[in-house]
Amino acid sequence: MIPKRLTAMLIACCSLFLYAQAISAHPAASSSTSDTALKPVQVFDVAAGKVTKTVVNDPSIQEQASAWIGSVTGLAPQISNDESCSYVFRVPLEKEATIKHNDISVTSDDLFLFYCKDKPPLLLMFDHKRRPYLFLFNADIKPFIQKMGVNAS
Asked: How many CB atoms lie within 10 A of CB 115?
């Protein structure tokens, strides 16, 4: 049985994913006219139930996301039902990335980072059929959290 909080977080991520899809289908006018500009990182505040901040997605964020993907150790066990998960970060990737573990291979150009206080961070990727996969990884997320400028305590 999936705890209510996990269900709410997955629904929120799915909503964020669909919202991101809609935005990418109809991009707002921006000061940059470059076709290669990355979509911004979105900060989803779980307590508020909405995106509370967007941050410019730059090469350093792409490098950090690549490090997370490269350090995946396996599928995550079920998230416990507690109040420690405060933020989910949607990180659009410059190009599709693939996470492979055992018989599972997931490719996506969107990555979601779950930040849960006092728990290991988790990566969420949706496959092409929009099925969610949660992964454990061991790369350091502190520089990313600091760059996002959110209260991570």
From this structure: 21
